[in-house]
Design brief:
The complex is a heterodimer of chains A (409) and B (326). Helix content of chain A is 44%, strand content 17%. Chain A is an alpha/beta fold and 409 residues long. Chain A folds into two domains: 192 residues, Response regulator (Rossmann fold, 3-Layer(aba) Sandwich), CATH 3.40.50; 150 residues, 3-Layer(aba) Sandwich (Rossmann fold). In chain A, β15 and β16 form a beta hairpin. Chain B is mainly α and 326 residues long. Helix content of chain B is 77%, strand content 1%. Chain B has a two-stranded antiparallel sheet with strand order 1-2. The longest helix of chain B has 27 residues. Classes of the chains: A alpha/beta (409), B mainly alpha (326). The interface between A and B is large, with 55 and 72 residues.
Chain lengths: 409, 326
Amino acid sequence: MLEPIGGRRAPFLLLSTIALAALAIWPADSAAQERSSVKIGYAVSKTGVNAGGAGITTIPNYQLWIDNVKKAGGLEMPDGSRLPIELIEYDDRSSAEEVVRAVERLAAQDEVDFILPPWGTGFNLAVAPLFDRYGYPQLAVSAVTDKAPDFVERWPRSFWFLGGGADYTDALANLLVNAREAGTIGDKVAMVSVADGFGIDLVTAARESFAEADIEVVYDKTYPVGTTDFSPMVNEASGTEADSFVAFSYPPDTFALTQQAQVSGYNPKVFYLGVGVGFPAYGEENPAAEGVMSLGGIDPTNEANRDYRRRHHELTGQGPDYWGSVITYASLEMLQEAIKRVGLDREAVSRELSTGTFQTVLGETKLENNQLRNLWWAGQWQNGVFVGIAPPDRPGAATPRLPKTPWKN
Amino acid sequence: MNGRLALVFAVALVALAALAFAPFYLGRYQIGLLIGLTGYVTLASAWALFSGPTRYVSLATVAFFGIGAYTVAALNEVLPYPLVLAAAAAIGLAVALVVGLSTLRLAGVYFVIFTFGLAELVRQLVTWYEVNVTGTLGRYIFMSFGPEQIYWQLLALMTITLLISWWIGRNRLGLALKVIGDDEVVATHCGIDIARTKLALFALSAVIITLVGAIQAPRWTYVEPGIVFNPTLSFLTLIMALLGGANRLWGPALGAVPLFLLFEWLSARFPDHYSIILGLLFILIVFVLPGGVAAFAERTFGQRKPDPQTYGAESALSRDTADARR
């Protein structure tokens, strides 16, 4: 005898009641009121695996900017009046599903005026169709992608600020070629990379850049995310004849690789690592970092940037990193200035961001085809500052110091 | 009895029609919510399809979900969409058969650990393949359809899942599964082919989960292993099914709907304290509703006659712990 059906009806009725009630109770869209503030919202990874990156490059700069606007009395409108920012922030908990829903909530439910982007290449791409559908400009800073030109075509209100993998590896290849022509190093490179988005994109680009520049890759290993023991890799690399060591690594690996190289007394003439070298903790108080190279960098003679670094330190208690932080902040300054010029109309703001010229902490800033191209593709720790060294013809570029000074133990 | 059955079907049909027309009178945000809701109801129901009666607690949900999403990412530019879905289902089925054949002999906690490991294994395999063969980790999904279409597909899949679940519950197969869940030795003596029955259900459940992943993937545009093989999904599905009651037709839905809405409300109102509040709520739920919402509802509203075939108010989890103590 099978179960009677009657007993199953009760849960079903309960379920339908809950579902209908929930949809009915869910707050309906509120009517537009007279404007007394500018609503700005963002969803960013405050917790989960992405929290480390977001907590350094993205969140402190959002806070600093909002604090700065508050101190100035609000966002300036074209008529000279100022409106305070009303902030709505969500935690996407490092989940793609959550970031999509949170941005949808910001756009359709909270009806914010502007949405600041999440952290990470994948998450920026996940929300790009939403930004586009709801007509928000997307200032994607923490996203490294070679496909930016395609994305701009697909989503005309998207802006890409951090370049693509090939930009960085071409610059690195160029640096190595220059050093080779100066007779400082040979043409062999040992290379390791993390098996995750950033590492794979960069190492794939690097293989091409090196091949074009006739640089021989004598060691090429990929390691899984979360690797902690780098001694085999460092020992194998040091056993090759390569003068240059290149690692497209994540912060924990970057620190561990540096330590392992010091412990093993591995002193390649070029020591280039990935994300993490640009953190203040890596080299500001650490003379051993002298000569280490990576992506990003700053122009230490830029007064506005120095002022920005000081304010960042005062508000958040930590210095900004030397790669994405200042660019995040500059993108917000551009947004602020665009609002001042054309008001809160998102279409007009997008047009202004795309075509206007802005004075930011980076100096004079102008986007080309919705992308920031005036970037530091490589930098090096020199006397406790991570200075930009490539492109070498950019004003403010420092001269690379090679070979790297041996580790000071 | 037949009159009641007809009534339930009529009510369900009206509810389904209302849900199908929902996108026409709801805002976009609510459609997004409905996608999440139907997705989790389907996941939890599909999970309970196998794990409810057999009491094999599976944490492999995200392995199949991710396979579905990845198949769409890999094939969306070379095949028409219906074929992509078919390919996803076929791959999910193949993996489920291989995994099922090799592991369904494992019992209790060993099975739990294996399924948890399976998700990580699949993720690492995909990563290895992308790193060594294609040389890029992320893949793009550019589809021309909007959230409404995703929602309708999920709604259809949910309906099919519930129908299958209802059909199995009234069928010899369902009876066989209950016997297996109660005592495998007895089941063997009754002449039930344990291995084949379990394998069939495991594969069916896995294919549905794979399809949920495949249908939802276009919402993300960009897919990489870290995004689609997020283990949280396995745990959420399990918690939802157990909260509702994994042995009832509507049980998983009864867990998924309120929990999903609760997650949404918490992340909107308390973004910074989400995890703390959630943890406290789970503890509270375990104390107040140890048998799941469905059993609670039946006791409270249904005046259900005690049924000798099921354990009534006990949940799959509490029975599992009872098993462990034996």
